[in-house]
Recover the amino acids of this structure.
């Protein structure tokens, strides 16, 4: 039970002001404003999909948990965070990094599609209004 609802509401308003409009992790969909943890003044971390050293502009916002998970998976794949000077090896590393990202992104895409299907079905089953 919330013993001080006005304080809770004030905290929520401060957090929403800081978080901005609809902050959400693109991988897991987590968006609870009380659970999102700021990272260097941001809530979501920038994940460099093919590693910052290879393309610093290909980034997506993900939560700290997903960032930790994807970083671990990259390490398990033997992906080094250092620049690979050999272009063939570099492209191979970037492709593996993309594969790891897409493996984590696929369930999110499925959830989004299912959510849209549900909303579309709800709209189709609404009674039509008569004038």
């Amino acid at each position: 039970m919330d013993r001080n609802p006005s304080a809770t509401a004030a905290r929520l308003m401060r957090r929403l002001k800081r978080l901005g409009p609809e902050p959400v992790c693109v991988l897991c969909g987590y968006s609870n404003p009380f659970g999102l943890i700021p990272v260097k003044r941001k809530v979501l971390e920038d994940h460099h999909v093919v590693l910052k050293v290879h393309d610093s502009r290909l980034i997506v916002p993900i939560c700290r948990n997903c960032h930790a998970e994807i970083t671990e998976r990259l390490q398990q794949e033997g992906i080094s965070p250092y620049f690979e000077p050999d272009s063939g090896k570099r492209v191979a590393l970037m492709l593996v990094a993309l594969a790891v990202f897409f493996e984590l992104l696929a369930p999110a895409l499925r959830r989004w599609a299912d959510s849209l299907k549900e909303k579309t079905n709800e709209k189709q089953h609404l009674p039509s209004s008569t004038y």
User: Anything to note?
Assistant: The chain has a mean pLDDT of 83. Helices lie at 5-19, 64-76, 87-124. Residues 17-112 form one domain.
